[in-house]
Amino acid sequence: MPTIKNNIHSITAFAPATCANVAVGFDILGFAFEEVGDYVTLTLREDNMISITTITSAESLPLDVDKNTASFVIQRICEDLALKVGFSIQIQKGIPVSSGMGGSAASAVAALVAFNGFLDEPLSQAELVRYALFGEELASGQAHPDNIVPCIYGGLTLIHSTVPLEVINLPVPNIFCVLIHPHLQVSTNDARKILQDKVSLKDHIKQSANLAAFIAALYEKNLELMKKVLTDILIEPQRAQFVPGFYKAKIAALKAGALGASFSGSGPSMFAFAKEKNVALTIAEAMQTELKIENINSDLWISRIGHEAAHITQIR
Amino acid sequence: MPTIKNNIHSITAFAPATCANVAVGFDILGFAFEEVGDYVTLTLREDNMISITTITSAESLPLDVDKNTASFVIQRICEDLALKVGFSIQIQKGIPVSSGMGGSAASAVAALVAFNGFLDEPLSQAELVRYALFGEELASGQAHPDNIVPCIYGGLTLIHSTVPLEVINLPVPNIFCVLIHPHLQVSTNDARKILQDKVSLKDHIKQSANLAAFIAALYEKNLELMKKVLTDILIEPQRAQFVPGFYKAKIAALKAGALGASFSGSGPSMFAFAKEKNVALTIAEAMQTELKIENINSDLWISRIGHEAAHITQIR
How far apart are CA A74 and CA A68, in angstroms? Predict the structure, then answer.
């Protein structure tokens, strides 16, 4: 059993925002953003309590340790490892709540990565995923690894098995990602509940063909092919209802030169891919304009796909 | 409009047997075998008639030009191009009838490739596919390109769009393919009719994950990964009923070291992949033994995945 190293006072870790599904890979594809993400600091306490001292930039999130994904997973892992240790947790949210940008996953992952830094025998990536899943179950009622995996592995990931966890790091295309967060809240739970539990064989074939060609496009570095196939015919049509103006924003993105655009995770955030940064800016403006017509304000990020997984940023 | 060159008397073309679906890519993946296939010879006639003079090794096939895929597509293309020309057609079948090895496609494709050799302006691959589809419609009532495409493009192919036709030649793994043809006839039509027209979302996700990982495995040349993911959870369970002993033969193949095994196309033929030729032989023997227990005799081929597309073998 691992034990706590005795020379560390406090560790801060960063975990990136993530985009799950990526249009063609519902529940199996995801990628990490660069820079956008959550920071979590774990500071050792004299007693064996776990508490949240501050949450920055997300007033709606609970300080109750049983309700926040970061503290919840730290409690769980300390119990499982029978560690007599306490932490004060500081959370600096860079990811909006219920945005479809993997915020609940990032807080849990950042906490776990910081925690892992205290251990003399660190846990594996697969173990970290397993614990982060408890956080997802807390946040949305369902333990889906689609945001956790790109958060912990970095880059663009394919989960080809959940039990046991099997992950492939796919080639990361040299492109820019536009991320638009409309100021609407869509709970992951609601977005999942409305999904039909059957798919027509015809749609399965079409979506599979797009997915397979997208994987080939990544390896071939073929952005023209990517543009042809980065289309979600299965899930997006069912979730478009949650965002007024979704299709107008998507069409505007494609007209402005996007290689593809769809929901980030279960939405309401949307992503679009662009070859060049200036094209990404034009796409972002076009999408925000369409949302604005529906009286929806939005935040905007432009980022490369982040090669870096969640990682420690400071040890004191 | 193309016209017939005036210095050619007769052309023979070869078209390979093909395996459609490849476990994880129903209706979209397929590959060509090496050597196994049909030969079709087109010989110019003085009149403008099209006739079949001989069909070798397949007594059950009709000599009626309206019922054979080879003559049917030649009639059609001559009409469309308004060519006043006649051909005697000789067909040498290397592919058993109704075996799931793409026999109807191969005869049509070989005829079209031979015909194309007579033209001063040859038709494109996509045009050849379009005409070969008329043959598939004749043979099975449905115009599916899943055997035609690997037959015309060679290697391992992904059809990512049918209208317009868009094909990717995937990396061909350096492996051996076992092909077992149980002496049972399963019509493509029957094998398609029994398929459920809906797929559960859960199964769609699982099959998609396997497909995506299979594509990654091809590019990564990762045979261990291929072995983990080359599994059909959607279609195979519905078609296993057509071949008594199917699962026993499949399990025997996997125990003998196969990287994966499933139906070739709609069956009854089965394919299995092997790293080495001697392993392929052991797999083949194990599969044939299981079928024999069910009183089913079978033919056997061991082949690499054929890089070569259908092609002309003789011009006189």
Answer: 10
